[in-house]
Amino acid sequence: MHEHLDAYLEYLTAVQRASAHTVKAYTEDLLQFLDFMTRRERTAWGQVTVLDVRRFLAERMEAGAARATVSRKLSALRGLFGFLTARGLRADDPTVGIRAPKLPERLPHYLEEDEMADLLRAPDAGTPLGLRDRALLEVLYASGMRVSELVSLSLHDLAQADPTGGLAALRVTGKGRKQRVVLLGEQAVEALQTYLTGGRPTLRANAEGDDDGALFLNRGGTRLTARSVARMLHKYVMLTCARHGISPHALRHTFATHLVNNGADLRTVQQLLGHVSLATTEVYTHVSARRLREVYAQAHPRA
Fold this sequence. Notes:
This protein is mainly alpha-helical. The protein has two domains: 2-86, DNA polymerase, domain 1 (Orthogonal Bundle), CATH 1.10.150; 113-298, Orthogonal Bundle (hpI Integrase, Chain A), CATH 1.10.443. The protein is built from 15 helices and two strands. The protein has helices at 2-14, 20-39, 50-62, 67-86, 113-121, 128-143, 147-151, 155-159, 186-198, 200-204, 226-240, 248-261, 266-273, 278-281, 283-299; strands at residues 168-173, 179-184. A hairpin with a 5-residue loop joins β1 (168-173) and β2. α6 packs antiparallel against α9 (186-198) and α6 (128-143) crosses α12.
């Protein structure tokens, strides 16, 4: 069973090109299921039944696992048994017909337009780190890219950018190593150019090793990490609007919400975000509708 599990995880990485985070989570989920099967004296994947899968998920729920966690475990099992059946290692898929727990609808955290404007003005433009932070925030808000995509950017990516009427197009690599084009507005391009000429050279001078061409550098002159971006953002959020729950991913939600609120169609937003399914993007229609109700309640004399 371990041998087949290892083969699936290798397939997940090499063929499906799943992210390291997904592979790590699925590995933990499937090892947990394997331990459950061992306790039930199952010695081969072909012995696993639908009832076994249901009992495993029920046991996780009873242990206090969140519905989203249980749903992910079911996804991991579906992937594994799909792999096994496709290769003739099982005659059927015991996960077919099992529904994932219904998840509560959660609207994403985002900043209002005036809050976002205050956030972008917060960094000190008189220091190299301030220039970096201003450029970083402008790029996140202008493009809607994930923080993992942001910190993986290199100078080479900018060299390939196509400035068109004050805009720049960047090709970024997202989930599943899929590439897409994101756009940067005029102010983001200007902030980036200022950082590249007045901030990055000073930061790079602090480094001892070779320059790997990273776009955003830390105080020591090496590539900035996602964790450092989160800490930096928290500092500025607390200085401006003091809102909790505003992570780098919340700026991605802010980007999408502001586009929808100002008339962008969902298909366009879907492409800019790199969502595979339009259903994932539809959450922003709920955010927009909520905003409309708030404005109506405040503005209409008889509301």
